Amino acid sequence: MVYKNACGPSRCITMQIVSRWYKTPVVLHAMNPLLPSSCWRCNSDTGSYVHIWWTCPLIVPFWNEVEKISQKVCVGSLKITPLLLFLNIIPDSPTKFNITLWKHMVLTAKSMIPLYWKQMVPLSHWLNKLNQVGRLEMMSVLIHRAMIKYNKQWETWWSFASKPETSQLFMV
Ligand SMILES: [Zn+2]
Question: For 45, what's the count of Cα atoms within 13 Å in the CB-facing half-sphere?
Answer without folding.
Answer: 14
